[in-house]
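JOB MANIFEST
job_type = single_chain_structure
chain_count = 1
residues = 322
[input]
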Amino acid sequence: MSKESTMNEVIDNDALRAMLETMLTIRTYEEKAAAMQAAGQAAGTCTSVGQEAAAVGVVAALGADDFILTNHRSAGHLLARGADPARIYAEVLGKATGYCKGKSGSLHVSAKELGVVLTSTIVGAELSLAAGVGLAASMQERNNVVACFFGDGAACEGSFHESLNLASVWKLPILYVCENNQWQAFVHRRETMPMDHVSTWAASHGMPVATVDGNDVEAVYRAAQVGIAHVKATGQPYFLETCTYRTRGHFEPDDQAYVDKSELAAWRAKDPIDRLQQKLQLNAAEFQAVNQRVLERIEAAWDTAVAAPYPSFSELTTDVYA
């Protein structure tokens, strides 16, 4: 598929409505997780509230056989990929029904059946490992895309340049997705980077790059399609930067005392869910119907996870390799 045909493809309202529901699912899931943490019923977690369009747009463009590596804000990518929220909640609660049998917590989930190779709390770790997964896919001639999600903070790590350099020199089928959410833990991007866009760095590694409005799910989807088409056609890497904003704190609980309130308000006015609702011209009743369906699903998922058993003691040494 050419770049022109991809960018001009009509995305019907049913597909956009599905994206809206997925974004609402991610938002509701994470707000519930944060609320349960505040109530002392779950461990702390990192959310991606405000960034949902980036996850949904890219993952919607991926094929079923493609791979995903991601970071500590992974719930959105997992849910966009079709993960069962009850199983993610179970993982958060350390329950046996979680994707990793309760051993990963909220930050290290792996789901082989979804093509999610790993999530990692080590900043930039997924960048290091993406090259290996990409090399394996290339050697096996599987024509898979390896989608590697990371933030602008990880782009300030040495592993960023190491990974992009390897992918460029070795011609690896990696779609790099930088979710530039303007924050690196408690430090603003402006304090650590001399430019506004990470794609400027990526371009120096000889791969095609694109920067897109990360709060416009349709724009993200179209841009991801272009990148994926390039990777599949050439077997070589592509870099996509989605410009968005983390509207909750770094790690729950977080009072965001370090955040400029006017900047936060400006980005909240560009909320990706509100924007898509307006584009679809859903009235209040229509939107509420979708929201209620999502809310009921998430509440049921939480109840299912709470009722699930903890792992037996026999699991203590399983899946341990060293």
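[summary]
The mean pLDDT is 93.
The first helix runs from residue 3 to 8.
exit_status = 0
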